[in-house]
Amino acid sequence: MIVVVVPVLLSLNLDFLARISSIGVKGLIEIQLREIKEKQAEQQKTLDEYSAILANLLTDQEQFHLRILAQGDAEYTGRASLRAELHRLRKFRLIAEVYPQRINTIYDTIVVKIGSYVKITDMGRRFLAEMDRIARE
């Protein structure tokens, strides 16, 4: 049994081994990962704090645009405030432009399918899910 465990332990990353508080063998390998769990809890707390801050930085209109993009597409009428809102969402990497279209070409008074110009990113989807989770708490 020791012959099998030693090569396995030697093949593990030393950084990983430094995080393990104890290893025991009783039919099954038992590994306590207390330090990793504490680090994950700390990271979750930090994520919650930053998500709440970012949620409060976005205007209602910016959050609305993000939700529209997550659901599909909609027609929008170009205006300066729309372009500014989309630029802010892109700056936060919550949306991305759809090549070859550009946010700056959503000119005043023209009606466009917004999904032809921008799309929600994976980060934007995760952000919406996090906002929903915070709202439920």
Description:
This protein is α+β, with helices and mostly antiparallel strands. The chain has two domains: 2-32, no CATH class; 46-136, no CATH class. The protein is 58% helix and 16% strand. The chain has six helices and six strands. It has helices spanning 2-11, 14-19, 34-57, 60-71, 80-91, 122-136; strands at residues 22-26, 28-32, 75-77, 95-97, 111-113, 118-120. It has a two-stranded antiparallel sheet. Strands 3-5 form a two-stranded antiparallel sheet. A hairpin with a 1-residue loop joins strand 1 and strand 2. The longest helix is centred in the N-terminal third of the chain and has 24 residues, at 34-57. It is elongated. It starts with a helix and ends with a helix.
Helices and strands, with pairings:
Layout: H1 2-11, H2 14-19, E1 22-26, E2 28-32, H3 34-57, H4 60-71, E3 75-77, H5 80-91, E4 95-97, E5 111-113, E6 118-120, H6 122-136
Antiparallel strand pairs: 1-2, 3-5, 4-6
Mean pLDDT: 81
Alpha-beta content class: alpha+beta
The total of beta strands comes to 6
C-alpha termini separation = 48 Å
Major β-sheet, in short? 2 strands, antiparallel
User: What general outline do the C-alpha atoms trace?
Assistant: elongated
Considering DSSP H and I runs of 4 or more, what fraction of the residues is helical? 55-70%
Uncertain ranges:
1-10, 25-30
Please trace the helix and strand order, writing H or E for each element: HHEEHHEHEEEH
Taking strands numbered 1, 2, ... along the chain, how are they ordered across the largest sheet?
A: 1-2
Structural domains: how many:
2
Number of helices: 6
Question: Measured on Cα atoms, how large is the radius of gyration?
Answer: 23 Å
Share of β-strand residues: 15-25%
